[in-house]
Fold these 2 entries.
Entry 1:
Amino acid sequence: MDSKQRPARERILLAAHDLFYREGVRATGVDRVIAESGVAKLTFYRHFPSKNDLILEFLEYRHQRWMACFIDALKRQHDKGRPGLQALVPALAQWFRSGDYRGCAFINSVVELGGVLPEAMEISRRHKQEMTDVIAGLLPKSRRRVQDAQAIALAVDGAIVRAQFDASPDVALKLLDRMLRALQAQSN
């Protein structure tokens, strides 16, 4: 569907998504979102009474979109013969190597917003917990499954940040793979 044919709310949200992710939440003003979405200022404020409302909606949208992509990438890797944790690094590599990669929108938002918008912090916590739950699903059942998933999720976040500032994501991916292999060897 052509972006001009989309409902105004959707156009605003998509424009905000692209701008907030690419340029940052604080660096992107409402006027820029309005211009990119092609709506009138009154229309914008009818759908989003404040920038904070838009930020929260962006984070919810990004969460749904990212989780669906993450789960799909893991499934594709599984279908290629990479079961369990073997799917994680190649799935992340697809994202890290995408042309629009700019790290984790949730980590970036927490850094940008700090404690200014507690609701954003809560959405980010929920996002990270759901990511951890998906990772736990890749692990064999054990009494340490939850703790291992939390450790892996922490390592994934570190790899996300490292891939964001290195010239190439290769170092981050290799280090994450090394950590995962060490964890698996310890579990055996």
Entry 2:
Amino acid sequence: MKKIIVFLAGFLTFCNFIFAKSNQKLDPEVEKLNRVLFQMSQDCKKAIPNGDPQEFLADLHKVLESEKNFSSEDLSPFYLIDKKNTVSENYEPKNLVKLVKNDLYEINKNNLSLRPEAYKALDILAQAAKKDGVTLTVSSTYRSYEYQKNLFNYWVSVDGLEEAERESARPGTSQHQLGFALDFAPVDDAFDKTPGGKWVYQNAAKYGWSLSFPQGYEEVTGYRWECWHFRYLGVEACEFQKKWFGDVQQFMIEFIDAWKKTN
């Protein structure tokens, strides 16, 4: 009997996935999938649609295989960093590449840099936008622990601690410290209505860029909607995120982290 994934609305909300009974022993990876899904938050489980576990696992392995496209000497592109999961104050990505004035996109600050993989992906993204008549502007990229510390303290002084926590990361918890995240300009809600904002929402995932803090998910991500903040994960991961996790980056990254830590 073919194993299928079935959503059990109402009476087994602890897990969206249950596998049809079979006389044959479950595949070890399917058993692992069950264990990992059991660990996920209720919101994450609700986001996962019905489907074939083998299809899910095949897509997962494409994502894990895509890690080979990134430097093995540095943190994974799927590294879980948020309000609860951090990097040290001494962490700086290796081989950061400085952004310089070019014909593909604008930069409005000095000393912007990205990990090499994200740097190349930004060129590809910006070139595609340019072909559609859109010029993107990059405003923020890699930030050191110290830079983030000063930035967070600044927003606390301006808005107070409670509001600052909604829109600025404490040092050691920012995706920017990984060297994979960037902010497009303008860095405010107005970006949503600009030609650049409209274009990246429709096309960024095709080139491996994922919106980190979507609207309506502050309780999940810890941050209010940031329409300008994208993280480079690769095309395979963006497809996986959209297909299986309601297109919510946090859910997918948490799942991958749990998968890697589960025997």
